[in-house]
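We store sequence, tokenised fold; for instance:
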Amino acid sequence: MHITFTDSAISKLKPLLSGLSGEGALLKLVFDSEGCGCAMNGVPTLWIIAEADDKDLEAKAEPFRVVYSPKHEVFFEDHMKIDYQAESKAYILKSNNQIYNANLNVIDKQTDDAHVT
């Protein structure tokens, strides 16, 4: 999986991730199905995490490290982009073929804080 970040997404995410200890910023792309009623119904979400799970795979991404669960890989394409739209104050996960989420939540799972975006 390849994930690129637009300049606007980088500038918005960098302050959120700069406080992480250890080897630096780590994001996890998940297909969050909690509260959706079915594992096939879900919403793409970015989690800020301290470390990856043993089974997580690492996407090719710059400038942030991005991991994902192998079981969620089926919900995404090989090449995606994360953008930030200042007008709507929202992150967007998209590919050349579709928009996965026009209001992508970024959740700090290190502290279980509410949505960061």
Summary: The chain has one helix and ten strands. The mean pLDDT is 84. The two ends are 24 Å apart (CA to CA).
